[in-house]
Task: structure prediction
Amino acid sequence: MYDNLETPALLLDEGRMQHNIERMQNRMNQLGVIFRPHVKTSKCLEVVRRQMAAGARGITVSTLKEAEEFFRAGVDDILYAVAIVPNKLDHALNLIRAGLRLTLLVESVAMAEQVARHGAELGVCYDVLIEIDTDGHRSGVKPADPVLPQIAAALQGGARLKGVMAHAGASYDLNTPEALAAIAEQERAGCVAAAEHLRAAGHQCEVVSVGSTPTALSAQHLQGVTEVRAGVYVFFDMVMADVGVCTAEDVAISVLCTVIGHQADKGWLITDGGWMAMSRDLGHRSHGYGLVCDADGNPIPGLAFGKANQEHGVLQWTGEGDIGQLFPVGSSLRILPNHACATGAQHSQYLVIPASGGQWKVWPRFSGW
Amino acid sequence: MYDNLETPALLLDEGRMQHNIERMQNRMNQLGVIFRPHVKTSKCLEVVRRQMAAGARGITVSTLKEAEEFFRAGVDDILYAVAIVPNKLDHALNLIRAGLRLTLLVESVAMAEQVARHGAELGVCYDVLIEIDTDGHRSGVKPADPVLPQIAAALQGGARLKGVMAHAGASYDLNTPEALAAIAEQERAGCVAAAEHLRAAGHQCEVVSVGSTPTALSAQHLQGVTEVRAGVYVFFDMVMADVGVCTAEDVAISVLCTVIGHQADKGWLITDGGWMAMSRDLGHRSHGYGLVCDADGNPIPGLAFGKANQEHGVLQWTGEGDIGQLFPVGSSLRILPNHACATGAQHSQYLVIPASGGQWKVWPRFSGW
Result:
């Protein structure tokens, strides 16, 4: 099936992806919130088109390059969900002047003042969310922090407070439905509390945006939330399987590689899929560089991907039988990634296995800032 | 200095790079061997031009994409140093027919037979090296293995045995001059022994190719060796500093990033340089995601880069003073990478600080297969 395909190559199972898209969108519809997918996972127009077609309203991006690429393709409502810094304001301004409804993020008074001043000087009013920290995992302002209304107050003149957003990244380290439901509620309650804190101080706070793939799939209700963001759900990966919000059978991307040699005395298979094809992301360190499957995508018990060099994978066989006969030089393997965002970023295209069968399709993806 | 530069960005100090290039080439000249740099580190024509200008003869590549790009730019003697598999032979053949002197690598009788058959069927004679394993770290045939002359014998018809090559990748885990000199001698002696094994069996073995950055810089003599390969020396990195073959002051690339926020109660600085800008390569786990320096490239004691998300770096401050005042939002930091090959691969260009001072230059780099 893959004989004529140069390896390593990134495969995308369109049927699995479509299932993942519909699962998330249906859930958001049931919860009564707008869904704004985070497109940092795919960086691919064809994927985003399918998310929009399923019902997504606007997108979330991790770089202004993503904003630029997707705006050029017709997406006109974009949240840039990393706190803005001065060196990116001109880039953001250019996109807004070209017609993009771009929302920026701040988490400090200093930056709120700079954004407002930049907007006032250049005759634009930036839409801004304040980042809220509900789980201590990274950035943002605590919901009850007195600095919160100060940031809002600094958004005067060339900026406008649009709302608040939280991302419970700590959910990636959990793995029971109870713990996931609890952190989803913590994310919701914290973000809603921040909005109420701002409203009590006299600020409008229209948008209450929360999300991560684990919390989006685990929230019991989303009262007070207006929109949810999630990214990796579109492909899923072994980290998400470890968290428990998908199974290996839901993972829509894999790296196709070829056996290039053996070290029979050690039980080693050498492949042409090294860390350049997989990324160095070891996820929860439970699957090495990824879950090893046969050419049809079925996991191979006893074959572990523990070591990688730039263009070499070193797989350890602990099963029965002669590895040279079981996995001869030239044979194909597929590796399910630990982290779809990281593995995808190592490739410039997806080779798409169509849901309807038939010929491969090639979907380009971009990278950079 | 960096105020107008959008971050994250990959910086290249041209003066440091030029020093590294001359240091290695001078050493190879003294040892009396041809130097064939491995260009997988830079994937950049401007860098390779400087390596060739300094005296390199031919290059080593890790992908056929590299072979294609550098051949198009005029490099006509290229070793593809990953064992070939059937799905890449047509690509290799096209390059050879276009005029490239391409050398392939095999490490099994099965693949030697396939290469020879492919060449015979399509009317070309492939130049081939056999990969030799001198340190057990990955792939290749042991020097005394009886399969070695069998592989050579299989290279009949559409292929020709050109020689042997070894790569002592285990040298990356050493850190004393004595241990490095010993593994360099082990690599040399093993590869020369493999060549003698083949010659004793009646085969020509013109090329004896060894190398890695640590062994190239540690070999006491290279009797019997015809050429040396090394890659990462061109930029160096914190792994090479840990090994002891360079210092942090030799590292020619760094990732420029910007402080986007603080979590003052934890001593955290948040930057816009996450794992997408650094890669997930943790090296020897002695510098987190890289060594944190100020905007001029001087290391900052007390500031450690322990945690990264896709577009966020989380830096821990353990020094004295208020982090918001020491490192305000919008201030610049430079991170020296653990692994130059991995960090470089996350970027599509180098912003070059010219050796002579003056304006930035932009040097593109490519990726993929």
About this structure: Chain A touches chain B through 65 residues (CB under 8 Å). Chain A has twelve helices and 17 strands. Chain A has a mean pLDDT of 97. The domain at 15-233 of chain A is CATH 3.20.20.10 (TIM Barrel).
